Amino acid sequence: MSTIGKREFNSSEVESELRRGPWTLEEDSLLIHYIARHGEGRWNMLAKSAGLKRTGKSCRLRWLNYLKPDIKRGNLTPQEQLLILELHSKWGNRWSKIAQHLPGRTDNEIKNYWRTRVQKQARQLNIESGSKRFIDAVKCFWMPRLLEKMEQNNSPSSHSSMSHTMNLGNSGEASINVMSSSFNIPSMSSASPPQRGFIDAADHCSNMSHPINPSPDSFQFSQLLEISEHPKSLPNVFENNVYSYPIQDNCYAETNNYGMEGLNMDPLSAVETYDFPQFDFQTAGSGWMLDSMGDTTLWNMDAM
DNA sequence: AACAGGTCCAACCGCCTACGC
DNA sequence: CGCGTAGGCGGTTGGACCTGT
């Protein structure tokens, strides 16, 4: 056994001079060209045949997370963030499963997003990120805000709601248009007494019990996104800001109108009327959530 | 300019499962 | 059934980069 840097290597690793750490352009090129000619799979053999001094695992990871042509780069869109939040509330840390529903995004990227942004957010709010409270808080506050942001991005000069229909295709695939103004998120200014905080609002959300079919007066976001655990095909999820998922054949019937008249989505009335007695962030001012939505990423709490 | 602390993400690690023998 | 191997997954880490002082 010998030591290189902080890590110990066994003799076979040293003998075969396996490389570790960042990939060089030359290595990337070797891998890309080899896969272009011979395809993916049999990674250990591939590594040897391609002349790479890397483990098969390392090659696979490099290809899947970085080199594959359809990998999307750059910040996650609000739509993608929204979908991650929803899917995580549904499936937990099943990153690869979640990634299947975000074409071009890798499980690693989603995992990193969750750990660096979402968990950080939860820490700052003193909520366990996997807890029901946090999920409820996400559904009550951040999902509506993301939806609003999506709407703003979609039609920056208008406050009109996006059009929303759902088309069930022949193959069991459906496109779901999201009508942000159609969510009956409990209005904080009316449904909750003053001086109640973020957590209480989350509790309020969690106390809403709904049947599978949304009623005009009550609807939870998760009911909108009944996504098949076994997609029949990789969907183009966010084309033209329209959700498009393969869904189970027997779900959804009435989705184009949730009767959300009177919904109070005004962030000021929803948030500013509250202080947050349980959290330190109340000292940051009442515009914290607005500030957090000012960036392209939801979880920018620098303003706090 | 220099430094410290924080953030982000590519890459690695260990564990698990599937599969072939 | 037991064993070895490959591939896949989620968790963790190292270091480059960014930001504030």
From TrEMBL:
The keyword DNA-binding is annotated on this UniProt entry: yes
Subcellular location: Nucleus
Keyword Transport carried by entry: no
GO function terms (MF aspect): DNA binding
Chief site of localization: nucleus
Annotated ranges, domain HTH myb-type: 15-67, 68-122
Domain named Myb-like: residues: 15-67, 68-118
SMART domains: SANT (SM00717)
SUPFAM superfamilies: Homeodomain-like
Any GO CC annotation of this UniProt entry: nucleus
Gene3D superfamilies, alphabetized: Homeodomain-like
UniProt xrefs under CDD domains: SANT
UniProt keywords, alphabetically: DNA-binding, Nucleus, Repeat, Transcription, Transcription regulation
Name of the protein described by the UniProt record: Uncharacterized protein
